[in-house]
Amino acid sequence: MTSAKESVQTTEFEQSITVAAPADHIFDFLSDVGNVPQYLPTVKNAQPQQGDRIRTQGQSGDHSYDSDGHFRVNQAEHHLEWGSDGENDNGGWMKVQSNGDSQSQVTVHIHFSPRPEMAQKMAERSPGHSFESAMNEGINKTLESIKRICEGQGGKEEIEANK
Questions:
Q1: Do the Cβ atoms of 161 and 125 come closer than 8 Å?
Q2: pLDDT per residue over 101-126, tens digit each?
Q3: DSSP H helical ranges for 13-130
Q4: pLDDT at residue 89, rounded to an integer
Q5: CB 140 within 8 A of CB 15
Q6: Going along the chain, which residue ranges are E strands?
C-alpha cells in the first residue's frame, strides 16, 4: 500500500504544435516571465525572482498553489526549462524550432510526479477521467493558447477543471 507521503511514478508527457509565426517572435513571448500567465492554463500570476528563479501562483480546480522554482532561458537555442521546488516533482522544457520564415514548431515536454491524492483529484476533474488525460489536456491548452496568441487569433485556453 502506498502512503500519502509517497509519490506516484514520474510520468513524461510531450506534445508539439505548428504556429504560423517566426521562431524568434514566439520565443521572445514565451521567455518573458510576465507572459507565463497568458499561456499556462492554471497560472494566474508569475513574477521573476533573483537569478533564474520564478514564483507562480494559480488555481487548478479547487487546488490553489503558490510555488517557487527555476525558469531558465537559452535564447540561442530557443529553449526554456522550468521546475518547481514544491512537494511534487514537476518540471519540463519547451523548445521553439523554425520551419521557415513564417512557421515554427513549439514542443512542450513535462515530467510530473504528484502525490497520489492529487493525481486522483486531477483524474476526477479531467475530461477523460484519468491523470494522463488531465495532463494531456493541460499541455494541449497551453499549446493552443501559444498558437492563438502568437498568430493574433485570441487568448488563453482554460482547462475544464477551471471553467
A1: yes
A2: 899 999 999 998 888 888 888 889 88
A3: 23-30, 36-39, 116-125
A4: 76
A5: yes
A6: 11-19, 43-48, 53-60, 63-74, 79-84, 89-98, 104-113
